[in-house]
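Below is one protein, fold included:
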Amino acid sequence: MLSVLKWFNVGLRALMELGIIAALGYWGYKTGESASAKILLAIGAPIIGFGFWGLVDFRKAGSLAEPLRLIQELVISGLAALAWYAAGAQTGGWALGLISIVHHVLVYLLGGTLLKR
């Protein structure tokens, strides 16, 4: 049973990350005014979002590493959910937010961490 939950959580993680890419890309496309700006923002916004995600190595923060990583992931997921809403797709933000919260709760219920040791 635990193995099924772990795979379910891996699937949620993949959905969350794909949702973040889609939300930031959709926001960029809707925000751009010209065709070239739409394409640039649709590609650039997810790159910047994931660049921020990987920018900091929290493992050097000692006992604060895990809480800081959790805060970072929730902020990025929240910003992506807001991006969905700002771009005019109200339902996508709720789904992304829910997937993110369920994933993070399962990580800790299964005894895992967000950072690899």
